[in-house]
Amino acid sequence: MEEIENIKETISKCERCDLSNNRKNTVPGEGSKDADIMIIGEAPGKKEDETGRPFVGRAGKVLTEALEKAGIKRSDVFITNVVKCRPPKNRDPKKDEIKKCRGYLEDQLETIEPNIIVPLGNSALKTLLGQQRISEKRGEIFEKDGRKYMPTYHPAATIYNRKLRPELIKDLEKIGEESR
Ligand code: SF4
Question: For residue 17, what are the CA distances in angstroms to 14, 44, 50, 69, 135?
Fold first, then answer.
């Protein structure tokens, strides 16, 4: 089993897909290596690319606040994305990019062994569970290959639709309970 720092180091040098061409920094993920909860978004954005840290832009602020309101410390969870480099102009990651990057996420999951995995939004839901619609699947617990999942809204979606914010917090509260 690889250490989380070794995985980070490998990602930092990765040129497996074309997303390596335009990145400023890789964004491997951050948080507790003993996390009970792993939160997985789609891909890094501009701020994340600039800093090498996940969820530090506007959506990241929403996520951090929603976690706090749900009684979860951001430093206690592990936060990452399906792909570790920013797609140009924030386009969706392509299938082959997701496929080439998938091994790193798998390594992180095997190393951290979280009690619950939280896909954020449609893209992460589709990649991790093969399901399409977050609005139908959020808040449900899924078991797949011996792992427990509970998807919820991407925090960015709650910026454009504020009505979703309490739902995100409610889901995170349930995730906190399920993770113990
Ligand atoms: S997105 Fe993943 S596979 Fe592609 S270059 Fe970055 S780390 Fe490597």
Answer: 8, 15, 19, 38, 31
